[in-house]
Every structure is written in C-alpha cells, then in structure tokens.
C-alpha cells in the first residue's frame, strides 16, 4: 500500500493556491475543472518532497465559499529546518504562527502551528532542536 494524497475542501481556490504556493512554497502540479460536476481539483506538492511523495489535493466545489470544520479533523504536519526562520518568512508575507514554537511533550523536537485560509491547522516540526 502507498499513501497518495490528502484532500481538503476550500472556499476560495485562488486564495488557497496563493497561500500554499507563495507562502508555504508548495508546487502546483495540476489544476482541472470538471464542468459537469461543478468542481475543480488542484494537486500540490510540498517543497523538498520527493517526486513520488504524497500530495495535497484542494477541492473547490463551485459556489461553496465556506465549510464547517469537523470536530474529528486534527491537522497536517510538515517538517521545516527552522521554525524561527520559517516564522520570519511568514511574517514578511503578512502571516504568523497560530501557536508556538514550543518543545514537544517529550522535549525532542520544536513544534508550532499555522492556519490556512479555510481554517485548517498545519503543524510545523523542527526535528533537530
């Protein structure tokens, strides 16, 4: 079995693409409109992921601008070399961490969170602190 992708529904596709590609440096792999189903699928790859790594799928259902965040959803997680340096980059682009940085409960890594335009939590992990 191979893990392929995670899908999240977004209310403003262009704003989400801008956030993931310009703020988080994801690479846009594909964008396809499905007129009959009235939805658009976008696939993104995180920076520094291998070519065969899993991807993030953004699904935009035409005309739906907001979703209620489910109580079972937790977060996505990505490794960064330095949370502080990543935070500086975020701040230059008008964003910031929503929590942290702090040590993990076992004290072995630094962790922080950011929130995307639709309210999805993204955990940042700095493994070598």
Automatic annotation (TrEMBL):
Enzyme active site: 123 (proton donor/acceptor)
Residue positions binding Zn(2+): 57, 75, 123
Keywords for this protein: Lyase, Metal-binding, Zinc
Molecular function terms, GO-annotated: lactoylglutathione lyase activity; metal ion binding
Recorded catalytic activity of this chain's protein: (R)-S-lactoylglutathione = methylglyoxal + glutathione
Co-factor remark: Binds 1 zinc ion per subunit. In the homodimer, two zinc ions are bound between subunits.
Pfam hit, one: Glyoxalase
Superkingdom, natural source: Bacteria
BP terms from Gene Ontology: methylglyoxal catabolic process to D-lactate via S-lactoyl-glutathione
NCBIfam families (alphabetical): glyox_I
Name of the protein described by the UniProt record: Aldoketomutase
Annotated source species: Silvanigrella paludirubra
Gene: gloA
């Amino acid at each position: 079995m191979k893990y392929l992708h995670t899908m999240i529904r977004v209310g403003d596709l262009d704003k989400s693409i801008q956030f993931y590609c310009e703020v988080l440096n994801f690479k846009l792999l594909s964008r396809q409109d499905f007129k009959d189903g009235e939805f658009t699928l976008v696939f993104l790859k995180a920076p520094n992921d291998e070519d065969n790594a899993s991807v993030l799928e953004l699904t935009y259902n035409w005309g739906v601008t907001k979703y209620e965040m489910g109580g079972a959803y937790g977060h996505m997680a990505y490794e960064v070399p330095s949370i502080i340096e990543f935070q500086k980059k975020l701040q230059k682009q008008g964003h910031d961490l929503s929590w942290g940085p702090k040590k993990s409960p076992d004290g072995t890594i630094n962790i922080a969170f950011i929130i995307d335009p639709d309210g999805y939590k993204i955990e940042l992990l700095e493994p070598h602190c």
